[in-house]
Amino acid sequence: MGDWLAVNEKGRLVLEGWDSVELAGRFGTPLYVLSEGAIRRRCGELRETFIDRWENASAVYAGKAFLTLAMCRIVQSEGLGLDLVSGGELFTASAAGFPLDRALLHGNGKTGEELALALASGVGRIVVDSLSELETLEEVASSSGRTASVLLRVSPGVDPHTHRYIVTGHTGSKFGFPVAGDSLREAVRRAMGSSRVRLKGFHFHIGSQIFEKDSHVMSVDILTGAMAEFRRDLGLVTEELNMGGGFGVDFTQEGRTPRIEEFTDAMMARLSDRCLDLGMERPRVVIEPGRWIVSEAGVTLYSVQTVKRLDGGLTYVAVDGGMSDNPRPSLYGAKYRAVAAGSMKEEATEVVTLAGKCCESGDILVEGMRTPPLSRGDIVAVLNTGAYTFSMASNYNRLPRPAVVLASEGRADVIVPRQSYEDLVRGEVIPGHLE
Ligand code: LLP
């Protein structure tokens, strides 16, 4: 269990000092609970082991993992930047007053409007994903009289052994310029020759939920090779190298989430060696973790609705949420750990399947949950749900999105209110002929 979770004398799961059953009663279920302390501790670790440890090193939090106005404020106060991937994320950061010169804009299908918004709002870096995007960016910059500071996203062609939906830097990826081939060189040439673009360097992000450092280190090798070639052939001095995120988090009871310096120390050592060998100055470095910062800081609370015991021993415990608030088990086969939040000290005598309430056989949150007997109204907590749950939530089956509560020492605040049924139809229109 994460360092912010405990059990009280009533045998209940305690979240950042708050009795989880009481939180569920006060704010309703399903409920996302995020620990401010746990998020800040991770940011602190990042500062200690990476930002403060190396010269010219910084980190941006990948907002796609979990982004709200309050999260932007936490990230800002921790001294991190933001990785944004859409106009909506950019709007969120801007609405929170986030210093956008510390943000960068990603994406393989950025629209002209998103590029224009990024330039107009002073986003620090645009990470260009293709030649056609580079052309659009030049047009947009020139029509607004601005200049864009860019990185080129490179797909290094490595396979980091994770779920195939979340690898991004392999050969044939939809992301970035393949390191082999002409398009990268052409983009470098074009960017260097453009009056609307300042080419600052390169970016790679090879995938998500990665536990071994090797693919990251190999990517550093590959990128430094390309940097040396471009310096030799085109005279390009790479000022900045963004080494992406993807640092894995363990969802099982054993919890062997790697320390982030297992990756960063190895990447930095290799980068320094390679730069020395190739006779280049080491560029500024950036990393962009998402899940590693926020996943373990989140728990989702549900209320048990039905318990169905089938002949043959299978027991389904159905709760009041499911793939609409956490699509990861059905989308990636992600395995979570669930606990009976109200009876943590009781013996686990049953093995049940924790089922979501969506109208899909695949809406199973946890298989093989070991638990004391559960009945209607009991609170179940699914652990380690801070990343890619709220941010990937939908209104499937017209389920209103749960509230998000930020638990801090001595206070628990709703940072995103629960959607109402009215919210579900807000803005919908019945055209005249159907009136
Ligand atoms: N940088 C870039 C360019 C990215 O595309 C991503 C994630 C990150 C950083 C942050 O990766 P992280 O440190 O969080 O692994 N929905 C999937 C994960 C998709 C990740 C997409 N890109 C999931 O729930 O597992």
Features:
TIM Barrel; Lyase, Ornithine Decarboxylase, Chain A, domain 1; 8-stranded parallel beta barrel; binds ligand LLP; 21 strands; 435 residues; single chain; globular; alpha/beta; 9-stranded mixed beta sheet
How would you describe this protein?
This protein is α/β, with parallel strands linked by helices and 435 residues long. It has 2 domains: 5-35 and 295-425, Lyase, Ornithine Decarboxylase, Chain A, domain 1; 36-290, Alanine racemase (TIM Barrel, Alpha-Beta Barrel). The chain contains 12 helices and 21 strands. The protein has helices spanning 20-27, 36-51, 69-77, 87-95, 112-120, 131-144, 183-193, 214-234, 261-278, 291-294, 328-332, 421-425, and strands spanning 5-7, 13-15, 18-19, 31-35, 57-62, 81-84, 103-105, 125-128, 148-155, 177-178, 197-203, 240-242, 284-287, 298-309, 315-319, 338-340, 350-355, 364-371, 379-383, 403-408, 411-416. Strands 4, 14, 15, 16, 17, 18, 19, 20 and 21 form a 9-stranded mixed sheet that branches. Strands 5-6-7-8-9-11-12-13 form an 8-stranded parallel beta barrel, surrounded by 6 helices. Strands 1-2-3 form a 3-stranded antiparallel sheet. It is globular and about 70 Å long. It starts with a strand and ends in a 10-residue tail after the last helix. The mean pLDDT is 96. The structure holds ligand LLP. Ligand LLP binds next to helix 10 and helix 11. Residues 62, 64-65, 83, 106, 166, 168, 205, 208-209, 244-247, 288-292, 328, 332, 388 line the site of ligand LLP.
List the helices and strands and how they pair.
Layout: E1 5-7, E2 13-15, E3 18-19, H1 20-27, E4 31-35, H2 36-51, E5 57-62, H3 69-77, E6 81-84, H4 87-95, E7 103-105, H5 112-120, E8 125-128, H6 131-144, E9 148-155, E10 177-178, H7 183-193, E11 197-203, H8 214-234, E12 240-242, H9 261-278, E13 284-287, H10 291-294, E14 298-309, E15 315-319, H11 328-332, E16 338-340, E17 350-355, E18 364-371, E19 379-383, E20 403-408, E21 411-416, H12 421-425
Parallel strand pairs: 4-20, 5-6, 5-13, 6-7, 7-8, 8-9, 9-10, 9-11, 11-12, 12-13, 15-17
Antiparallel strand pairs: 1-2, 2-3, 4-14, 14-15, 14-19, 16-19, 17-18, 20-21
Helix pairs in contact: 5-6, 8-9
